[in-house]
Amino acid sequence: MTPTRRSVCLLGALSLMGPMGGAHAVQGLYPMPGRWLDDRSQPMQWQALEGRWTVSTMAYGACRRICSTSLRTLQAVQDLADQRQVALDFVVIGLDPTQDRPADWAAYRADHKLVRPNWHFLSGDPAAVRQAARSLGVSYWQYGDHIVHDFKIVLASPAGQAVRAMDAFDQPPSLLLP
Predict the structure, then answer these.
(1) pTM of the full predicted structure?
(2) What is the pLDDT of residues 6-62, one digit of tens each?
(3) Which domain holds residue 75?
């Protein structure tokens, strides 16, 4: 990672450590319009998650600050859910359709040993990604050839309604358990 990329991710992380000021309201997730592909290049419909608790976030595969913190938080939530025998699905949505493609997510998933079938890494077209960001309440913007974005992880009910959201690094992972 270049020093510029590191500083952009760090700048985003430092500026977003506190709660969001309500810039975007979290909406229901089903149906999430657009064309989505999973990390196996298979079409994914958000309605397939109906009936299950889902933890969702957005990530930029090249980011090493906010996104790595988000993924570590998701892994901590998975560990807690396993301990408490709570079934959850995890959805990671790529912020950059040109860099977060199915093959990129497949490599990321393998590198991070995220092989469980309840983890979904999705790639969408630019319009679908913008809609997902609005639905999850995630702000992001282009900074040169980098993407800076909020830290936000959302727990959705089996009906697809946002129940809770974690928007600060120091909140407990248990916040995202039903």
Answers:
(1) 0.82
(2) 333 333 333 333 333 333 444 567 778 889 999 999 999 888 999 999 999 998 876
(3) 3-18+32-176
Separation of alpha carbons 88 and 51, rounded Å = 11
Mean pLDDT within 99-105: 92
Q: What are phi and psi of 90, to 5 degrees?
A: -120, 130
Distance, CA of 60 to CA of 81 (rounded, Å): 25
Task: Please state, in angstroms and rounded to a whole number, the distance separating the CA atoms of residues 59 and 75.
Answer: 14
Distances (CA, A) of 46 to 31, 49, 117, 166: 6, 6, 15, 21
CB distance 129 to 100 below 8 Å: no
Within-domain flag for 53:
yes
**pLDDT of 76 above 70:** yes
Number of domains comprising the chain: 1
E-assigned strands of the chain? 36-37, 54-59, 89-94, 119-124, 140-143, 146-149, 153-156, 162-166
